[in-house]
Design goal:
Number of domains: 4
Mean pLDDT: 96
CATH topology of the largest domain: Creatine Amidinohydrolase
Largest sheet: 6 strands, mixed
CATH superfamily of the largest domain: Creatinase/methionine aminopeptidase superfamily
Shape: globular
Strand order of the largest sheet: 4-3-2-1-5-6
Number of helices: 23
Low-confidence stretches: none
CATH architecture of the largest domain: Alpha-Beta Complex
Number of strands: 28
Oligomer: single chain
Length: 679
C-alpha cells in the first residue's frame, strides 16, 4: 500500500529532476500546509507554491499527494462527535488544565485574528464539543461546562453537542463573562489564550474573574492544542494580486490614505490584525480559510505609509512579491513579537482595535515598554474605507450579481420541474446549484457553505445538510436555499424560499409578512447619519403585528471579492453606532422560522446610495437592490400587499426579467417570464 511518505519520496525525486530541490522535511511541511488549506473552485493554483511551471506529471503527483494528506483524519467533522468522543476530549482537557494549575478555560470559536472565518487548525470549539457554528464559546470548569450560542444556533447546538456535558446558554442574554462571575469559585485560576481574545473581551473576562474573587491567567500554548493530537498545521494557499482594474484604487494610494488617518490620530503605527483589511489595503487575495479569499497575516502600517507584512512567505509567488513592491517589507510571522516590543521600547504610540487586536499584542507592547504602552484604542482604520466601495468595485459587484442571478434563475427553473418528483434531497439540490454557478466559468469559490434546508430543516437558521440529516424535498413543504459565489469582480449572497407544491395558508401569510418587511427596507429613504439599528424595525414590523419575530440580524455588510460578512455596519436590533454611507453593501434578509416545520427567508444584497428627493430638507440615502432573482409568487398572499408594495415587487420582477432573461433561452427563459409576471 502506498503511503504519504512514499509519495513524498517519489515527488522529491521528480522535482529534483525538474530542477527544484527540497529537503525531505521541507517538502513534507510545505505539502502538509497546502493540504490544510481549503480546496476552492479556482483550480490547483497552489501547485505554483511547490513548482512554478510544473509539468503535467509533477502536477498529477502533487495533486494525488495533496488529496492523500487532506484526507487524513484531524478529529473534525460536520455532524457532531461520535458517542463517547466528546466525553474523552473533555476529560483530556480537564486533565491538561489540572496539570497546568488551572481551574477552568474558555474556548472561543476564533483564531488569532478574531474573525468569523477560521482555518481547520483553529476550530478548537468544534473539535472539543462537536459544534460547527460560526460563533460561540465553551467554558470548561472542573465540575461543569457551558456552551454559549446565539439565536441562529438554538436548534443546531442540541443536534451537535452533548448537552449533558455542555449546558447551552443563550447569548447575548447571558455572556460568558456574566456566567463566569456567577460560577467561578473564589480563589480559582481561570485560563485564557491571549491570542484568541480581543482587548475588550479580555478585559471583560478579567472583570468577571475579579468579581468572583478569581484570577484570569494568560496561557502560553493553548491547552486544547496539547490534547488535540491530530490537529492540522496552519494552511498555505497562494496569495494573488487583485488588479487595480477591479480594485479601483492602487495599494500605494490606499496606504497613503490610511497612513494619514494614522498620523492624524497621533499614532506612529497601527497593527492590522484583520486579514480582510490587509487584503484590501495591499490589493491581494488568498485562500487560507473556507470560502473567503484572504490570506492569514498581520501587518504594521506606519504613519509614513510603510508596511511590515508578517506572513508565511511560502505563500507568495514571484508575481505577488513583485506586486507588493518595495513599500511592503516582508517579515516572518514570528517576527511580530519583536516588532511590537521594539515599538513599546521606543515609546511609540500604536493604534490597536480593541475588538479585534489580540490581547497578546498589548502584552508584547507592554513588555517592550516595561509598563503601560502608549496606545490609540479605536476601530481598525481600514474598516470604513473598505466598506465604502468605490465606483469600480460597485460596477464589478453589479456584474457579479447579473451573472449570479442567471445561474440562480436556471436553478430555480430546474427546481420547479424536479423538486415535486420527491427524488431530490438537500445535498443533491445544493450540488446542482453549485454546478450551475461553476458553469459560468467565472466563479472562484462559493461565498459560504450553501444552506439547503427542506421542511423542518429550513427552520435551522444556519443549517448545513449532511448525509445523516439530508431530507428529500417533498410536496406541501417549503425549501429554503441561502447561497452565494465568490467572483473576481464581486461577492454574492442570496436567499430564496420556494414552495414545493402548494403552500398552506399559514405559510403564505408568514412568507408575505417577511416579504413586506423586505420591501419596506428596500424602499427606505433615510437621512445621512442613520444607522442600521435605526432601520431594523422596518423589516420586523409586519411580523411583530402577528406576534412573530426572528432571532438574527436583518442585514450584514458584504465585501468586494472578500468576506461575505463584513463590518463595521449592519442592520440589527443590536446597537451599532456606525452610520450607513454611500458605497456600503448590506444584506436585506428578514425571515421567520417555525421549529420542526419550516423556515422562510428572503435575502437580497443592496448598496447604499444618495437619494434625490425634490424639496428635501437635508441629505438623504436609499438602497439600490443588487440581487436579481425571482421571488416565489406561489408563496405570496397578494391581498396582504399594499399598492406601493405590489408596485415595488412588480418593478423588481420586471428588472429581473429584463436583465436575467437576456442571459437565458429556451425553457429557462419561458419559466422566468412566467415567474416574474406582474401580480
Amino acid at each position: 500500500m502506498s503511503t504519504p511518505d512514499d509519495g513524498l519520496a517519489r515527488l522529491a525525486d521528480l522535482l529534483r529532476s525538474n530542477g527544484r530541490s527540497y529537503a525531505p522535511d521541507e517538502l513534507s511541511a510545505l505539502m502538509a500546509g497546502i493540504a490544510a488549506a481549503p480546496e476552492s473552485l479556482a483550480g490547483a493554483e497552489w501547485v505554483e507554491l511547490v513548482a512554478a511551471n510544473a509539468s503535467p506529471q509533477v502536477r498529477a503527483e502533487l495533486t494525488a499527494l495533496r488529496e492523500t494528506l487532506a484526507n487524513r483524519a484531524d478529529g473534525l467533522g460536520d455532524s457532531g462527535l461520535a458517542a463517547g468522543e466528546a466525553v474523552q476530549r473533555l476529560a483530556a482537557l480537564r486533565t491538561e488544565l489540572k496539570g497546568r494549575g488551572l481551574d477552568g478555560f474558555i474556548v472561543p470559536r476564533a483564531d488569532e485574528h478574531q474573525g468569523e472565518y477560521v482555518p481547520r487548525a483553529a476550530q478548537r470549539l468544534a473539535w472539543l464539543t462537536g459544534f460547527t457554528g460560526s460563533a460561540g464559546w465553551a467554558v470548561v470548569l472542573a465540575d461543569k461546562a457551558a456552551i454559549f450560542i446565539d439565536g441562529r444556533y438554538t436548534l443546531q447546538v442540541r443536534q451537535q453537542v452533548d448537552v449533558s456535558l455542555y449546558a447551552p446558554v443563550d447569548y447575548p442574554a447571558t455572556t460568558p463573562d456574566a456566567w463566569l462571575a456567577e460560577n467561578l469559585a473564589s480563589g480559582a485560576r481561570f485560563g485564557f489564550d491571549p491570542w484568541l481574545h480581543g482587548l475588550s473581551e479580555a478585559e471583560r473576562l478579567a472583570t468577571a474573574c475579579t468579581k468572583a474573587g478569581a484570577t484570569l491567567v494568560p496561557v502560553e500554548g493553548n491547552p486544547v492544542d496539547a490534547v488535540w493530537t491530530s490537529r492540522p498545521p496552519p494552511p498555505l494557499s497562494p496569495v494573488i494580486p487583485q488588479p487595480v482594474e477591479l480594485a479601483g484604487e492602487s495599494s500605494e494610494d490606499k496606504r497613503a490614505r490610511i497612513a494619514k488617518a494614522v498620523a492624524d490620530k497621533g499614532a506612529d503605527a497601527v497593527l492590522l490584525s484583520q486579514p480582510d483589511s490587509i487584503a484590501w489595503l495591499l490589493n491581494v487575495r488568498g485562500g487560507d480559510v473556507p470560502r473567503t479569499p484572504f490570506p492569514l497575516s498581520f501587518a504594521l502600517l506606519r504613519k509614513d505609509a510603510g508596511v511590515d507584512l508578517f506572513v508565511d512567505q511560502r505563500k507568495l509567488p514571484a508575481a505577488t512579491r513583485a506586486h507588493l513592491g518595495n513599500g511592503v517589507a516582508l517579515q516572518r510571522p514570528e517576527a511580530l513579537a519583536g516588532a511590537l516590543e521594539a515599538l513599546g521600547r521606543e515609546g511609540r504610540t500604536v493604534w490597536l482595535d480593541p475588538q479585534t487586536a489580540p490581547r497578546w499584542a498589548l502584552d508584547r507592547l507592554a513588555s517592550g515598554a516595561g509598563g503601560e504602552p502608549k496606545l490609540v484604542r479605536d476601530m481598525d482604520p481600514v474598516a470604513l474605507p473598505k466598506a465604502c466601495k468605490n465606483e469600480v468595485e460597485l460596477a464589478g459587484v453589479r456584474a457579479a450579481h447579473r451573472r449570479d442571478g442567471a445561474a440562480l434563475s436556471r436553478y430555480l427553473h430546474w427546481l420547479a420541474s424536479e423538486a415535486t418528483k420527491g427524488e431530490t434531497d438537500e445535498i443533491a439540490a445544493s450540488d446542482k446549484l453549485q454546478a450551475l454557478r461553476e458553469a459560468t466559468g467565472a466563479i472562484r469559490d462559493l461565498s459560504f457553505e450553501t444552506i439547503s434546508g427542506a421542511g423542518a430543516n429550513g427552520a435551522i437558521v444556519h443549517y448545513r445538510a449532511s448525509p445523516r440529516s439530508a431530507r428529500k424535498l417533498r410536496r406541501g413543504e417549503l425549501y429554503l436555499v441561502d447561497s452565494g459565489g465568490q467572483y473576481r469582480d464581486g461577492t454574492t449572497d442570496v436567499t430564496r424560499t420556494v414552495a414545493i407544491g402548494e403552500p398552506s395558508a399559514e405559510m403564505k401569510d408568514r412568507f408575505t409578512r417577511v416579504l413586506k418587511g423586505h420591501i419596506a427596507l428596500a424602499m427606505a429613504r433615510f437621512p445621512v447619519g442613520t444607522t442600521g439599528s435605526q432601520l431594523d424595525a422596518l423589516a420586523r414590523y409586519h411580523l411583530w403585528q402577528a406576534g412573530l419575530d426572528y432571532d438574527h440580524g436583518t442585514g450584514h455588510g458584504v465585501g468586494a471579492y472578500l468576506s461575505v460578512h463584513e463590518g463595521p455596519h449592519r442592520i440589527s436590533k443590536a446597537h451599532n453606532a456606525v452610520a450607513l454611507r454611500p458605497g456600503m453593501i448590506v444584506s436585506n434578509e428578514p425571515g421567520y422560522y417555525k421549529t420542526d416545520a419550516y423556515g422562510i427567508r428572503i435575502e437580497n444584497l443592496v448598496a447604499v446610495r444618495e437619494a434625490k428627493i425634490e424639496g428635501a430638507d437635508r441629505a438623504y440615502l436609499e438602497f439600490e437592490t443588487l440581487t436579481l432573482a425571482p421571488i416565489d409568487r406561489a408563496c405570496i398572499e397578494v391581498a396582504l400587499l399594499s399598492g406601493p408594495e405590489l408596485a415595488w415587487l412588480n418593478a423588481y420582477h420586471a428588472r429581473v426579467r429584463e436583465v436575467v432573461g437576456a442571459q437565458l433561452d429556451g425553457e429557462a427563459r419561458a419559466w422566468l417570464e412566467a415567474a416574474t409576471r406582474p401580480l
